[in-house]
Amino acid sequence: MANLLYLSDANFADEVLQSAQPALVDFYADWCGPCRAIAPIVEEIANELAGRLKVTKLDVDQNQATALQYGVQSIPTLILFKNGKEVERLIGYLSKSKLLSKIEPHLR
């Protein structure tokens, strides 16, 4: 859990848009079954790619402004930001290999 950062509407821009490294944001809610299912995978990726990728989580129930700003309508939604811009959007439960196949090209 040490490599995961929990975001809020207040710190989203500083932690994600101003990040020196690519940032993956997991938009989730505690009540969401698929969100709970993908959480361990997101945590594994955070640990494995530490130093290359900033992995964050944003609770959409408590931070509705950011979720609305990025048009998050289904959860889990994972958005990868690079240089302050959205470069990849993944919706729903995905396997670790599928997630990594979408993330790794942006880490080069």
Explain what this protein looks like in three dimensions:
This protein has 108 residues and is of the alpha/beta class. It has a single domain, classed as Glutaredoxin, CATH 3.40.30. It has four helices and five strands. It has helices spanning 12-17, 33-48, 64-69, 96-103, and strands at residues 4-6, 23-28, 54-59, 77-82, 85-91. A five-stranded mixed β-sheet has the order 1-3-2-4-5. Strand 4 (77-82) and strand 5 form a beta hairpin. The longest helix has 16 residues, at 33-48. The radius of gyration is 12 Å and the shape is globular. The two termini are 25 Å apart. The model has no long low-confidence stretch (mean pLDDT 96).
Mean pLDDT across the residues is 96
User: Total strand count, please?
Assistant: 5
Work out the radius of gyration: 12 Å
| CATH homolog superfamily | Glutaredoxin
Coarse morphology: globular
For the termini, the CA-CA separation is: 25 Å
Provide key terms for this protein:
108 residues; Glutaredoxin; five-stranded mixed beta sheet
Spell out the blueprint of helices and strands.
Elements: E1 4-6, H1 12-17, E2 23-28, H2 33-48, E3 54-59, H3 64-69, E4 77-82, E5 85-91, H4 96-103
Précis, in short:
The chain has 108 residues and is of the alpha/beta class. It has helices spanning 12-17, 33-48, 64-69, 96-103; strands spanning 4-6, 23-28, 54-59, 77-82, 85-91.
